[in-house]
Design goal:
The complex is a heterodimer of chains A (487) and B (509).
Chain A: H1 20-28, H2 32-39, H3 43-53, H4 60-75, H5 77-97, H6 106-128, H7 139-152, H8 156-169, E1 173-179, E2 185-187, E3 191-192, H9 195-199, E4 208-212, H10 218-269, E5 278-279, E6 284-288, H11 291-297, E7 305-308, E8 314-319, H12 325-341, E9 349-352, E10 357-362, H13 374-387, E11 393-398, H14 406-422, E12 425-430, H15 434-442, E13 448-455, E14 461-466, H16 476-486
Helix pairs in contact in A: 2-3, 2-10, 3-10, 4-5, 5-6, 5-10, 6-8, 6-10, 14-15
Chain B: H1 20-25, H2 28-36, H3 44-47, H4 54-67, H5 70-82, H6 86-94, H7 99-126, H8 132-146, H9 148-165, E1 168-174, E2 177-182, E3 188-189, H10 190-197, H11 224-236, H12 238-251, H13 257-283, E4 287-288, E5 291-292, E6 299-304, H14 307-310, E7 320-324, E8 330-334, H15 341-356, E9 361-362, E10 365-368, E11 373-378, H16 387-404, E12 409-414, H17 422-438, E13 442-446, E14 458-465, E15 472-478, H18 483-493, H19 498-508
Parallel strand pairs in B: 5-10, 8-13, 8-14, 11-12, 12-13
Antiparallel strand pairs in B: 1-2, 4-9, 6-7, 6-10, 14-15
Domain DNA mismatch repair proteins mutS family (chain A): 312-485
GO molecular function, one term (chain A): ATP-dependent DNA damage sensor activity
Protein name (chain A): DNA mismatch repair protein MutS domain protein
Chain lengths: 487, 509
């Protein structure tokens, strides 16, 4: 039974950890506060939610399916919370009751499996009691409901539970046997004796002898243990299979409901300004807002930004310092990651062409401390990024290669940007480098979209990006003067 | 009439009796211990009694040559594992308290023994053995299997085994309480029940944990539980078990003395072969079967080495050759200390001794003469403080050796009289050698006295040192003594040559 609540063929791991590149992206795009808001300190949810951001959905229909499931549970958060809680409790209880460790003892596996399966089955009973039938179900939930019914409805669950109860109650069993050439008993697999029947005497015509192994006869007791292991091996293997299928089912269900609970948590903290993204051939968004800012400012007015890629392949953002460039770049990265994970995004609308990766190369303070030299470190990070580049990607560059002079930095930036474009990457670059813009502008292969942070005559920023070419001066100076003049 | 794989005709009393000193000096006990470790049978009596005529030695050598062929060896090794000798199985069976077990055990062992004998015979027939020993053994076995008592036994075993294996019974187990009954097919196989009830949860393909419990192998042999089960089973099926008891009464003492003996004797051969193969593989060296020759032919061994040294597990082995022409009586071995002289002397003695056990000896090729006795005297230098008493004892011992020696004696002397004055030692050595040579004795004489090698009918051999370094090569070759080269190089290694002392003095002043 494969859980396909929010997608077919999900490969999410319960022990996932971000690699170095992903850690860079998490830091660059300020994903931590978002994860924090979604998880409410539930580590599993945090891990799953983060993992989902690095496992993009590439197909339109898959995206629509996940969005439908997500939308359903945003409407009925109590249902998904209940399932998540039941599943988690079952898993935790199985963990504490599980004492089968090795590969040797079939008996140990057998009794561990009985207890574990009982716990799992009772959780399934609780989930089925939610009666999902009463709702208009999206495809993913419908499928789960159908799976459960097919496997457990019409008394099947009760029958399984009864058998497990009986096995727990009565440890007596029979085996048939024959003497081997080596004088040992060649036994068959164990036969089930219902505990009612165990009390009944054998037929009178049967010759039989009963003995009890003396308590101190360790050799015989050990031999009995081995005989029981042999007799139980087949049943234990079957039960292990059952257990392992249930375990897998619950593990998948846990991960997938964790993601959904995370999304409902996140939605509750935002006052409704979101849309469901759409896959189209080019990036286009209106009133896109930085999610972290939204969470932090808690409902205060935040300026959204628009962008329309059309047929361009490089977006160059320039303009005043503290003009909202980095905030916008982050908002774009966050939205792209969330969109591809099947989440809502905070914008009026959001269209994008699905990419396998969203990668970042941000100017780093810590680069300065590296002894190799800051530029070397920057280049190394870029090399690592290029090394793992997939067939489609969105690369966000934030003031890259400013650790050297402008001329050199521009050429580096240009070369890299051009290379990335040739790898079918959409590059969004924040940079003051005027020469970089010139080089991009003159290149016939590059279709450049320029955005500039607005600055009014009085130096006040509007935090709006407009489609204009960069100015030669950066506005750092006026920040400087602002500081020095007013003081 | 075939009776043994070890002796063609000889009786135990006709064998040689080496002196304890010989075995000790040649350090052969170490070697025999290493071989013994590869055998279940006690081989010490065989090792202590060298053979005294060519045909006996050839009898063993031929058997060895058959047995080293891998298919033959594999067959025999398997036979050794499977066949249980009469004394051993009697002890094993008596160990059991319960009658049912004893009876059944005997059935199994006799069945197993007959099977392993038949298997051995079939294999040996197919493998076309050349040695007289193994061929006679095969003939003997053929006769054994054609004899009526054997046929009768085989038939009974087949019949009884079948009857026992046809017993079907059920065990009903509840805790430590077990009921043994005639087969009743109580209840349903649990696994079927599980598969049926949990069918919806079993159709998935992706089960990794499935291999979590390893299949549990069927046990063999007896444990207390099985004893209890058999005990009960005897009551459930009394007639069959009565028959088993009768079989026990009839066949408990069933054993063929020659088969019993040969089954044990195989051990000597396989242990030696195992030992020898192990050394071969570790050191990339050879073993060979010396050709027995008369005293008028040269005795020679090429690329031999000392097995006692191997027991110390050295990193590598240096091989040495030796030859004694008919006109040569003694090898006079001299050269630097720690140069391998003693090892060489031991090697020569061991080669003769092992040859007379019919064993393969270390070396590529060899021709040796049978010696009636091997006499040795190795001086123990560490006891030099007990000089007077010791010297007297030494002289007494040497005198006995000289007296007891004859043409068929091999004498090995190691560093006699090293603690006496050189002039005295030379005189004593010369006298002893002259006496021995006069008696036609052959041997090895290890000494620091270069002068001894100038005697007639002696050959000088030298332990070698590479000239520039002081490194010993442990090669002993024929040549006149030249102690200078070694001394200089040794001094150099301590910076004690005249020139160096002079220079050192200059430095200090």
């Amino acid at each position: 039974m494969k859980v396909e609540l929010i997608g077919t063929n999900l490969k999410w791991q319960s022990n996932w950890k971000p690699n170095q590149l992903q850690k860079n992206i998490i830091a660059d795009l300020e994903l931590e506060p978002i994860i924090q808001a979604a998880s409410d300190d539930d580590q599993l949810i945090a891990m799953v939610f983060l993992q989902s951001l690095f496992d993009p959905i590439m197909e339109k229909t898959d995206l629509a399916d996940r969005q439908a499931t997500a939308a359903f549970f945003l409407e009925h958060p109590q249902i998904v919370r209940k399932i998540y809680q039941v599943v988690q409790t079952a898993i935790a209880n199985v963990k504490t009751s599980w004492w089968f460790m090795g590969k040797e003892s079939a008996i140990a596996a057998f009794s561990s499996c009985i207890s574990a399966c009982q716990l799992y089955l009772s959780a399934i009973e609780q989930i089925m009691a939610l009666e999902l039938d009463q709702f208009q179900l999206p495809a993913g939930v419908l499928k789960l409901n159908h799976q459960l019914k097919q496997a457990f409805d019409q008394g099947k669950l009760a029958k399984m539970q009864k058998l497990l109860r009986d096995l727990k109650k009565s440890r007596a069993y029979a085996v048939n046997s024959q003497l081997t050439a080596q004088l040992d008993s060649q036994i068959t697999q164990r036969r089930f004796i219902h505990w009612h029947k165990w009390l009944a005497p054998l037929a009178l015509s049967q010759r039989k002898v009963t003995f009890e192994i003396p308590i101190r006869d360790d050799n015989a007791l050990n031999a009995l243990g081995r005989l029981e292991n042999r007799a139980t091996w087949g049943s234990a293997t079957t039960l292990l299979t059952v257990y392992s299928n249930l375990k897998k089912f619950f593990a998948e269900l846990e991960l997938q409901t964790a993601w959904l609970v995370g999304l409902t948590n996140l939605a509750q903290k935002l006052s409704g300004e979101f849309c469901w993204p759409v896959y189209q051939s080019a990036l286009k968004t209106e009133n896109l807002k930085n999610l972290v800012l939204l969470l932090k400012l808690n409902g205060k007015e935040i300026i959204g930004n628009c962008i329309e890629q059309k047929n361009s392949n490089v977006v160059l953002i320039s303009g005043a310092n503290q003009g909202g460039k980095t905030t916008f770049l982050r908002a774009l990265g966050q939205a792209a990651l969330l969109a591809e994970a099947g989440s809502f995004v905070c914008a009026q609308n959001f269209c994008l062409k699905p990419v396998k990766q969203v990668l970042t190369h941000f100017k780093r303070e810590e680069d300065q401390t590296i002894q190799n030299g800051k530029l070397a470190a920057e280049l190394q990070r870029m090399a690592d990024l290029v090394n793992c580049l997939a067939s489609s990607a969105l690369v966000l560059l934030n003031e890259s290669f400013t650790s050297t002079n402008e001329h050199e930095g521009s050429i580096i930036n240009y070369q890299i940007t051009k290379g990335l474009v040739e790898r079918q990457v959409l590059v969004v670059s924040v940079s003051f480098q005027y020469e970089y813009w010139q080089l991009l502008d003159q290149d016939p292969e590059i279709r450049l979209l320029c955005l500039r942070a607005q600055r009014r005559a009085n130096g006040q920023r509007t935090f709006k990006l407009t489609g204009k070419a960069p100015l030669k001066t950066s506005f750092g100076l006026d920040l400087f003067w602002q500081k020095f003049k007013t003081s | 009439m075939f009776t043994s794989l070890l002796y063609l005709h000889t009786k135990q009393s006709e064998l040689a009796q080496p002196t304890p000193a010989t075995l000790k000096d040649l350090q052969l006990m170490k070697v025999f211990k290493a071989i013994q470790q590869k055998s279940i049978q006690d081989l010490s009596e065989i090792f202590k009694h060298p053979l005294t005529n060519d045909s006996e030695i050839k009898y063993r050598q031929a058997i060895f040559q058959d047995l080293v062929r891998q298919p033959v060896l594999t067959t025999v090794n398997q036979f050794e594992r499977e066949f249980l000798g009469h004394q051993r199985f009697k002890a094993e069976i008596s160990y059991h308290y319960d009658g049912e077990i004893r009876n059944y055990e005997l059935l199994i062992i006799l069945q197993q023994n007959l099977k392993s004998l038949a298997k051995l015979l079939k294999a040996l027939d197919q493998l076309a053995c050349q040695s007289a020993g193994l061929r006679s053994w095969c003939l003997y076995l053929h006769k054994f299997f054609q004899a009526d008592p054997t046929k009768q036994l085989q038939a009974e075993i087949v019949d009884l085994t079948q009857k026992m294996q046809d017993l079907h019974y059920s065990l009903t187990i509840s805790g430590a309480k077990i009921t043994v009954s005639q087969k009743i097919d109580q209840g349903m196989p649990l696994n079927d029940l599980l598969k049926q009830s949990f069918a919806p949860l079993l159709n998935s393909q992706s089960v990794v944990q499935n291999d979590l419990i390893k299949p549990i192998p069927q046990e063999s042999g007896i444990n207390n539980l099985q004893v209890l089960i058999l005990h009960s089973l005897a009551k459930v099926y009394p007639a069959e078990f009565r028959e088993l008891s009768r079989f026990y009464q009839e066949y408990f003492e069933f054993a063929d003395p020659v088969i019993e003996r040969v089954a044990q004797e195989f051990n000597f051969y396989t242990a030696v072969i195992k030992y020898q193969q192990q050394i071969r593989q570790t050191y990339q060296v050879n073993f060979c079967y010396p050709q027995p020759v008369t005293a008028s032919t040269a005795n020679t061994v090429t690329a031999s080495f000392d097995l006692a040294l191997i027991t110390m597990a050295p990193p590598k082995i240096i091989t040495n050759d030796f030859t004694l022409q008919p006109e040569e009586n003694f090898l006079i071995v001299s050269g630097p200390n720690q140069g391998g002289k003693t090892t060489f002397a031991r090697m020569v003695g061991a080669d003769y001794y092992l040859f007379q056990l019919g064993m393969p000896i270390p070396g590529k090729k060899a021709a040796l003469t049978i010696k009636r006795q091997i006499l040795t005297h190795f001086e123990r230098q560490e006891k030099a403080s007990l000089l007077t008493g010791l010297l007297a004892a030494d002289i007494e011992r040497i005198y006995q050796i000289v007296t007891a020696s004859d043409q068929q004696t091999l004498v090995i002397f190691n560093e006699l009289f090293s603690s006496t004055a050189v002039v005295d030692a030379e005189q004593m050595g010369t006298t002893i050698l002259q006496r021995l040579i006069k008696k036609g004795v052959t041997g090895v004489y290890v000494t620091f006295l270069a002068k001894l090698s100038s005697l007639p009918r002696t050959v000088s051999m030298q332990s070698q040192v590479s000239i520039q370094t002081t490194k010993r090569t442990f090669k002993i070759i024929r040549g006149q003594p030249n102690n200078q080269a070694y001394a200089i190089s040794l001094l150099k290694s301590y910076h004690l040559t005249a020139a160096e002392i002079k220079r050192g003095g200059a430095d200090e002043s």
